[in-house]
Sequence to fold (157 residues):
Amino acid sequence: MDAPRDRDAGGRARNARPRDALGRPLPHGAEGVERAPEGLPRTPDEAIGEAQALLDAGRPFHAHEVLEDAWKAAPDHERQLWRGLAQLAVGLTHAARGNDRGAARLVERGAGNVAPYAAAPPHGLDVAGVVAWARGPLSADRPFRLRGPGPGAGPPR
Fold:
């Protein structure tokens, strides 16, 4: 018989297992990192600020969760922007986990989704800068690690 699945109040499947900083599930009872609350209504500025703080802290998986909430709540004319930002964060997650091929694919997909917003970027986002970061030159030592100041480039700002 299968073990019962974790479910939220609405009956949707949820995984209550603790996770590490890169979102990988840990065994029940292990100590994980605090997760970004899901389904929390945030203004676009709050979502951007929280996602950036999580990226800066080396937690791209958790940034993706924040951006995914914003994507789901976004008005139709901004949905692809938020979807693309979430894909960029997932790409960074894959890169941090060592999945360079998956990382490159998701970052390219994310850049394609945010690029149309470069002409009139909403919420003060530097969309052109994010796209330039995502499509920047690749380093030979790690296919997805983008060159930038210092040893290895960090997340986009």
